[in-house]
Amino acid sequence: MTFINYASREINCKIVYYGPGLCGKTTNLQYIFDSTAPQARGKLISLATETDRTLFFDFMPLELGTVRGFKTRFHLYTVPGQVFYDASRKLILKGVDGVVFVADSQEERMDANIESLYNLEENLQSQGYDLMKIPYVLQLNKRDLGNIIPVEDLAAELQRKGEPVVEAVASTGQGVFDTLKAVAKQVLTELRKG
Amino acid sequence: MDASAKVVFLVDKDGQEIASQGEVGNLDTTSLASLAAGNVAATGGMAQLIGEKEFPTLSHEGEKESIHISVVGRLLLVVVFDERSSLGLVKLRAKQVSQQLAAMFDEIAAGDYDDLDSPFAGITDEDIDSLFS
User: Fold this and answer.
1) ipTM above 0.85, yes or no
2) pLDDT tens, residue by residue, B82-94
């Protein structure tokens, strides 16, 4: 739920990066963090295991600028991708304004993509949201690897409602800001509808 | 109502900071709000697994600094305190003030805010694009 603070003239939106384990959700946030001016972003908080797998969530506030006198801030979250952290994933979707699904383009991860996407639909529903209505972007990550599925095939399998599809290599930053922009625009357009 | 606390925050359950008061200094209040909400969400999930609705208060005691969190409806009252106060005093004051806050929030929720238009109602595509230029 977008949070509008009339007193401090701020507007805060929550965007969640979802997807199967090791698909690159944290890498997306890390790239945004590394390439944004320190005054425009807060700390990147990572609640991770000792082996650097996301345990609960990553969090980073990002300030985009001012619209109509209101400071516009996005709170970016990732979920833990590993299947057994489902209870945590549900909690992180609370109050979400927009979702990025980060798909792993590698052939052997296709089943994991599909499972995670079903899981997203289910968990959104349990929080009272509908994937078909919420601002949403599909990112096809790891396009630099050798064993990847063609974009058309991935889109045919994973695209749900004509949402923007962005090809990405999160480790080098390719497509990372295009993805963020695509989802942020949808969130702001939703706000206009009221 | 004085609990000799260092900083007090109001945070919503989704992790958005609403207000803060006290020695904020260089404290990263945005991250603290997000983590406090995550903390309450996680312990709330545990509560439900053992048949409780939620845990209405949480306390974390450190060597010098401590945190006490109370759930007040949709909001969290987060109190940061040090050795100038004590958990007992903070708990007592937080409980007292929570009741007052709950009554205030009910009053606010019952208010009529139809005239409070979204600042984004008149936003244009150019406005949105300008954020990314």
Assistant:
1) no
2) 999 999 999 999 9
Residue A8 and residue A97: Cα distance in Å, rounded? Answer: 20
Name the CATH superfamily for B7-111: Dynein light chain 2a, cytoplasmic (3.30.450.30)
Q: Which residues of B touch A55 (CB under 8 A)?
A: none
C-alpha to C-alpha distance for A8 and A153, rounded to whole angstroms: 47
Chosen for mutation from B128, B129, B130, B132 (greatest number of chain A CBs closer than 10 Å) is B128
**What φ, ψ does residue A71 adopt, rounded to 5°?**
-65, 130
CATH code assigned at A133: 3.40.50.300
CA neighbours closer than 13 Å in the CB half-sphere of residue A47: 20
Question: What is the distance between the alpha carbons of residues A178 and A143, in angstroms, rounded to a whole number?
Answer: 15
pTM: 0.92
Phi, psi of A103 (to 5 degrees): -95, 145
Residue contact B38–A11, C-beta within 8 A:
no
